[in-house]
Design goal:
By secondary structure, this protein is an alpha+beta fold. The chain has one domain. The protein is 31% helix and 32% strand. It is built from three helices and six strands.
Amino acid sequence: MNPKNYRDSVYKIIGSAMTVHNTLGWGLLEAVYNEALQMELLDRGINSETEKIIPCFYKNRQMEKFYKMDLMVGEIIVELKSVKEIVPAHRAQLFSYLRLTHKPIGLLMNFGGISLQTERYAYIEETNECVLMDKNMNLLFQENIDENL
């Protein structure tokens, strides 16, 4: 998996999120940004799924409990927040989704500040790691970021 293969899609998602943030401003409910982002993506011809369900298993038996991801755009998981700042628990939530689904890319977006805040992560299946990436989709370091949570 080469994260750079997803660069154009990530740029389009972040560009859409910037449009939403610029249009609506900051500090609204997360659900408002979720719906607006889905509409903006659709306006740009990009299909997405909102509140996608991830089943949970215990000893190979499916549980009644499940997770709901905010948004999926192709193979990219988008976790939305509307908070003062991103904290380690928000990253841990995205990392759980990446590990459960084995999707290659996760975006963490925060609409809660004056400027849109975004973080990009790659899921490395071989090592089960989630690695921070820069704006050019380069892996910033290979050590397991989860140790910092």
